[in-house]
Amino acid sequence: MGIVRLRTKAKIDRGQACLKYMETRTSLVTLKELASKLGMTTKAISNSLMPLLDQGLIKRELVKRQSVISNKPGWAYGYYIQKEKTR
Question: Is residue 84 within 8 Å of residue 58, measured between CB atoms?
Answer without folding.
Answer: no
